Amino acid sequence: MPSQNDAPRIASAAREIAATAERVFELIADPAQHPRWDGNDNLAAAAPGQRVRAVGAVFTMTLTTGAVRENHVVEFAEGRLVAWRPAEPGKEPPGHLWRWEVQVLDPARTHVVHTYDWTRLTDENRMRRARATTADRLRASLDRLADIAERP
User: Fold this and answer.
1) What is the pLDDT of residue 151?
2) Euclidean distance between CA atoms 120 and 97, whole angstroms
3) Could you tell me the mean pLDDT of each successive run of 10 residues in the chain, 152 residues long?
4) For residue 112, what is the domain's CATH number?
5) How far from 93 is each of 3, 45, 82, 98, 143, CA to CA, in Å?
6) Name one Pfam family in it (predicted).
7) How far apart are CA 106 and CA 140, in angstroms?
8) Containing structural domain, residue 128
9) What is the rounded distance in angstroms from the CA atom of residue 14 to the CA atom of residue 142?
10) DSSP states of 102-140 as a string?
């Protein structure tokens, strides 16, 4: 029987959203919007004005525990892709990554993939939380994002 250490370290979920790719991407690229649709119930707040526009950007987020995270953007393509590695303020990221991929299906439909990758996570204190971040939780974020994006 495989041990917990052998479990997959990448969780992913995807769905179609009945909204323009531009609208969906704006919700993802603006950290102030994240607590509205976070399916992990982990995000409390982010200051406005931190819209992600490039690799190398850093945005801050306050977690529901009150802790603050600096999120280092490591992948970015306007309208299509954004990924970041969270870290405690002033520290190096411990190795996990959040990624959002947006693909236009047609002018009113968008395919979105949300991935949590902890293959490079080395901090033992974060392993339990990482294991709990399943495809179902990612799907919950996608469903909440769709509810907001699909509103007129």
Assistant:
1) 94
2) 9
3) 60 98 98 94 95 98 96 98 97 95 97 96 88 93 98 90
4) 3.30.530.20
5) 26, 20, 16, 12, 28
6) Polyketide_cyc2
7) 24
8) 11-149
9) 7
10) EEEEETTEEEEEEEEE-TT---GGGHHHHHH--HHHHHH
